[in-house]
Amino acid sequence: MASDDAPLQDSLSCNTEQKEAEQEAPQSLLHICRFCLSRDEEDLIPIENVLLLTLTIEDILLFTGIQIEEEDYGEIALCVKCTNKIQVCSYFRHCCLTNDAAFRELCADLIAKVKAARIEAKEAAAAAAQALREAEEAALEVEAANQPCDTIELSSDDEFNYSANYIKAGEVLHIEEPMYRPSDWDMSLNPTPPAVQRHPREKGKRKLHLCDLCGLKVGHIPTHYLDHSTVATVGCPYCPVKMKAQKSINEHIHTVHFKLVSKTCEICGKGFVHHKTYRYHMITHQDEGNTFECKDCSKTFTNSIYLRDHIKRVHNAAKKVKPKDSEETVKKKRIRSRNPEDNRIYPDSD
What we know:
This protein is mostly helical. The protein is built from 9 helices and 10 strands. The C terminus is likely disordered.
């Protein structure tokens, strides 16, 4: 019998414990903030007091998104920080709604003022135009009144015999000029333009086109634009050299790789790969048998090219003169000339 009563007593004790826990749980929730979960009891305020003093349940739902039932008011508390934040949001919303109504009234007033100003401007313009028309009409009336009128004096005999269509014998009538007049095109403001004269093209001569970049006249603009380009796209098949045009690559292959003779001296029969060396060689034939003396140092040369190079190299005032090495730089050069393999020092020239 005692064994049968044991399960019943256990179930009764569990039910009582559950009821006690349910009664104690709401009291423990008053020690936690519903929103930020703060446990600082000094800052916690029951939600019933908050709703009585500052906020409404609609504000809490609007700014937190949490629905709080009326039956749970005695079990929920809020901290001071959360209460202040909701109050700020509520005040800001109230200000926005109030200002929105004021803003709409202000817009309506401004629109009404603009419309009134436009109507006044139209009325003023119409009044000014009417005054101008009246002034013009008055001026025309005054002018017409001041003009003299032609009067016809009639005798008593001709008073009833006068006719406006009566023409005396031999009277010259006034003939009006025709309305249409043939215009003189030579004196007209819009004369006929002269015929376009095309430039005569010479037979067998290619037409040249003007380059917009350098102003030269060339035969083929797309090929000429490659000279202005800064990117070399055509490469040599025998070496890494790249150039802008295929013509330059062909000359490079003939002169550098194939060594083809492009010019031959008609005097001595010597062949040349490059046209510059051929030109210098022809100058030697031209200057053959002559001597060229430098006016600055009286040196003589057998070629005018040699004299020109001598003047550029020795007597050129614009050429920068290299400074002479001082003793310290000479010593540094000697130190650098040491051989690190055998640690030998080259003898001084002193």
